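Risk mitigation, structural track. In case the binding assays with pyridoxal-5'-phosphate fail to produce interpretable data, a predicted complex structure has been prepared as a fallback.
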Amino acid sequence: MAFKTDIQSASDILERFYRESKTGSTPVLNQEKPEEIIRNLGLETFVQQGGLTGPALKKFLEIYFTYVTRLHHPNYLGHQCAPPHPSSSLGTLVNGFVNNVSSIYEMSPVSATFEQFVVNWMLEKIGWEPMPYSKPSSGFDGQHAAGVLVNGGSMANLTALVIARTHKIPEVWNSGNTDNLTVLLPAESHYSLTKAAGILGVGAKSVHYMEVDAKGRVRPDKMDETLKEVLSKGLIPFAVVANACSTSVGIYDPLDEMAAFCTANELWLHVDGAHGASALVSPRYRGLLKGIENANSVSWDAHKMLQVPSLCAGLLVKDHKHLNHGIGGYQNASYIFHEKDQPGFDSIHNTIETTKSGLAEKMIFVMGAIGEKGLSDYLERQHQLTYAAFEYINGCEDFECAVSPESNILCFRIVGSDELQLQIRNHLTASGLFYITTVVFNGRRYLRLVFMSHNTTLSTVKNLVTEVVRLKESLSEILKN
Ligand SMILES: *Cc1c(COP(=O)(O)O)cnc(C)c1O
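Fallback model:
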């Protein structure tokens, strides 16, 4: 079959791509205009006539790869997407080929089992009781946690808020919102949470923000004040959210103290661990998440710090009943077995998605290749490099960092205006030399580095600093005029 030779072409070019990316011998990104990309690849012709196979495919791939943004490149310091482990992409390929749907057991016993295995692995890392694989003879009255894999952290956050809302006011599922619902968010939180409030009909403007310290960390000593204020307005907070860690500067909220406050006040605590829950794999850094076991729900992206391609996110709930009731319409469901007599469970009732690909395949293939130790080694390396980069940049004249880092995210600025930081970033990406982002934190714009590539070293950071200084000199003149 032509597929076999085509896949050989693809694997040859992927091997070369990986080698070039590692050594940084090409630009990290190449932003061409869409019209040019369409023309150079001959998309119109292929779509009209077909023939994208054999030598034509080989040529097509050569061109395709000239426009690829290289996440394994040492100078890739952009968004929080994993430079995937090569083995994990095999999971995507294999599951894509067989197109087995993981949400219905009989549509893929292996994908459904993989998903439950990965969810259980995550639950145990949090310190929760895993789900049984088969229906326990005693029924489902036991205390255990549960979870599903969903398409991303934003989806996991949305699902968590749906579940928290149903838990607080079960009638909402059938009758719609009351007009006094609110959510308490850290002042620094991911925009998927306000978006979720909008989607839920709570209203993006109805959320309340909790006070944070100079690092953007929630102040547990101020939570009581915020809660009293909210309650005095007649509002019903149905969830409190904690960052683990924040997207902007990568700081962890004090989960222990927040959980104690929420337990005392009967509030649902959701931990947004999309980026930072992966530190649970590291014996050295799992302390950053102390207290996570006392939360009610957790979001955890595998496609950020676990070397897994997008998307693969865990939505994890401490008490399995909440998952089943919360998103399933508060049905008096006979759990996930329904009337079917089958060996495993269907997860379809517990997700916003209906059909869902085998997300766990990506995770199983990387875990199987490098083991938990491999996952932990990568995470620890990236954290340590970030801490070393902080020491270096903080020691450079004219440079300052936003906060001392706790994860693999580091924000800094060179003396000068916000506009200067933005211009520096734009020049770096336009030239294809470095891929970095910027963020506004405490009212000022910072250059933001996310250490994702295993090929980035401290000398990469030194080269970046040199380049930033050079750009500042040339740009300062232009900005003055
Ligand atoms: C990345 C991130 C998200 C969004 O996750 P996606 O997988 O991109 O949808 C949500 N919260 C935090 C804290 C994040 O870092």
